[in-house]
Write a structure and sequence with these properties.
There is one protein chain. By secondary structure, the chain is an alpha+beta fold. The chain has one domain. 43% of the residues lie in helices and 24% in strands. β1 and β2 form a beta hairpin. The longest helix is centred in the last third of the chain and has 18 residues. The chain is globular and about 35 Å long.
Length: 76
Amino acid sequence: MNSFQQQVELARQQVAKTGFSGTAVVDAHIYKGFIRQKIEINPPEKLAEFMANYTDTLVMILAMMNIQAKVHIDKD
């Protein structure tokens, strides 16, 4: 296991100790530039907070790749 994988595993274990977990389905259309995700979180009441933080992280990654992101958050 390389150091990146070790860091990911260590972070996963630390988060698991808090009782936080979830599942995700990623649907990627790589030649169209389209990615759709369905994420479920345990505990469910943490979903909105997770999605807001995840969106911020995604925008940050895109910015580091010199890609400008426009974000719409539906609060329903």
